[in-house]
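Our working data are protein records whose layout never changes between entries. An example says more than a description, so a record of this kind follows.
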Amino acid sequence: MRIVTILLAAALALPLTAHAEGTLTVSGEARVAAVPDMATISLGATGRGATATEAMNATSVAVDAVLARLAGLGIEMRDIQTTQLRVNEQSRWDNERNEDVFIGYFATNTVTVRVRDLDGIGPLLSAVLDDGANQLQDLSFGLQEPRAVEDEARRRAVADARTRAELYAGAAGVTLGPVVSLRDTAEPLVPSIVGAEPVVVMGAAEAGRDVPVAAGELEVRAEVTMVFAIAD
């Protein structure tokens, strides 16, 4: 017990050194608003049939018409991708037989489309609904060239971190030294998502009106962690 007491007393007598006294670690963040210039939307058709082929054919007719319409509206093939193609058996519970009874097949065919002209997204949605699409989902907005906005947010985040470091150093009565390390800690830009669940769309399209869509703004966020040396 005496040895432990002596060692503890010696440790408490040592001055603060190395990592704790030599650096100052701060975080900085910034948010930059940007007007989106691109939209991404998944759309498609569902169908039912007595056989898997019949169910899929029911969706294929609508999706073929949708693809033709998209091409006619100037959407390039590089901006169209099939993202879901599925056929499932369907059944219902029969109380008399106390078991599931097969009633047919249900098919889904979904394509994801990038729309680079936001002024045309309302007419586009109305047109594909007229052509037989009965599902719209995952409408999101983004930037075709996000790098400039992201870099501006990063610059502001670094400036914010430096301002904080200078404030803390001044309050502590020490002189701020050079940057020892800098780490980007923000997550990648994720566009705002409108309606993540599938929606069967009616109303405006059935009335012959364009589907109303509001793009709003995107917020690009940057965050950095900086370590500064303490000069004295």
